[in-house]
Design brief:
The protein has helices at 6-30, 32-50, 59-80. The protein has 81 residues and is mainly alpha-helical. The model has no long low-confidence stretch (mean pLDDT 78).
Length: 81
């Protein structure tokens, strides 16, 4: 086969594109669980930033903030009943 022909170049490029596509699909599927964990972690960070807690080492303040949020949630459910 003549490696200098246009058909060889097109076939070679097509095969390379297919190989790279399969590799990317495999890597993406193998990293799916890690991506999901990162999305959950990012969501938790956004929730904490909404209640103005930026340092996760202040567990007492976080616990108190969560307690206050739960307390507010229970008050609203009692009023609806």
């Amino acid at each position: 086969m003549n490696t200098n022909s246009n058909s060889y170049t097109i076939i070679y490029a097509s095969v390379m594109v297919i190989i790279v596509a399969f590799l990317l699909a495999f890597v993406s599927s193998s990293l799916k669980s890690t991506q999901d964990k990162n999305v959950q972690l990012d969501t938790k960070k956004q929730i904490l930033s909404l209640i103005h807690i930026s340092e996760p080492t202040r567990l007492g303040m976080i616990s108190y903030a969560v307690f206050c949020l739960k307390k507010k949630k229970h008050k609203h459910t009692k009023w609806k009943n």
